[in-house]
Design brief:
With 245 residues, this protein is of the alpha/beta class. It has helices spanning 10-32, 46-52, 84-91, 112-131, 186-189, 205-213; strands spanning 2-7, 35-39, 66-70, 72-74, 141-144, 169-174, 179-184, 194-199, 232-238. The chain has 6 helices and 9 strands. The chain is globular. The protein binds 6-phosphogluconic acid.
């Protein structure tokens, strides 16, 4: 079951997304004492991250009980301009009182499969600790973006990571970009309590329509394979992205 919420522009979309993060954090901490969040990469979420660090939001999240992970990462060092971690640090994490040991970046500077194996162990150990047993749920909230080719996280059309059924994180070779990426897998994402796509811009409109209406084969449209087993899926989009719905 997914809901599509349309906002006038990218600013109101970011404001709604920041409110959604605050709401999910309060629900999670009330339910089980921690808020386990996976951040998306790319450019769309930056404004949302900046809002979460501003005076209207920063005090409304219990950062001492918050654990931050990533949905995907480029295979670059953490200070590289393309690093999703670097963007989130600059926009959000350097400006909120979250304990450094509660920030779990994907180590893009390592050999891809080693980095993925390290992250797999971190995820399994973390959710064993915070959930008391290996859960059938993972994150309280996963933030995702939508690529104009239908990818999400670093789950790109036609790549090997789409077919993973057990691991929660993996290295994924992306021929389209001639590069390796690190990404959460569908088993991990679809075990989340909440998944929120943030989609902005006319250039996503056709793809968004295809994903929402399931118009294209799943392997060509990885975002359509985000179907939380028990969690809730919401699409937070602006009018430009929704213009073909
Ligand atoms: C990444 C992202 C990726 C992103 C989409 C949308 O590392 O690039 O995780 O999945 O969310 O490509 O990117 P934009 O928000 O820049 O359009």
């Amino acid at each position: 079951m997914s809901a599509v919420r349309v906002y006038p522009n990218d600013v109101s979309l970011a404001q709604a997304a920041a409110e959604w993060v605050v709401q999910c954090s309060a629900e999670a901490i009330e339910q089980h004492g921690t808020f386990n969040l996976a951040l998306s990469g790319g450019s769309t979420p930056r404004r949302t991250f900046e809002l979460l660090a501003d005076e209207d939001h920063v005090g409304r999240i219990d950062w001492q009980r918050t654990y931050v992970f990533w949905g995907d990462e480029r295979c670059v060092p953490p200070d590289h301009p393309e690093s999703n971690y670097r963007m989130a640090r600059q926009a959000l994490l350097d400006h909120v009182p979250i304990p450094a040991e509660q920030i779990y970046r994907m180590q893009g500077e390592l050999t891809p499969q080693i980095a993925a194996d390290v992250y797999e162990r971190i995820l399994r150990a973390h959710f064993l600790t915070v959930r008391g047993k290996l859960p059938d749920t993972t994150f309280d909230l996963v933030l995702l973006g939508l690529g104009s080719d239908g990818h999400t996280a670093s789950l790109f059309p036609g790549t090997d990571a789409l077919s993973i059924t057990t691991r929660w994180s993996t290295a994924n070779h992306v021929p389209q970009l001639d590069t390796w990426r690190l990404t959460l897998t569908f088993p991990c994402i679809n075990a989340a309590s909440h998944v929120a796509f943030l989609v902005s811009g006319e250039n996503k409109a056709q793809r968004l329509r295809q994903v929402i209406h399931g118009e294209t084969a799943d392997a060509e449209l990885p975002a359509h394979l985000v179907q939380p087993r028990q969690g809730k899926l919401v699409w937070l989009v602006d009018e430009a992205a929704a213009s073909a719905l």
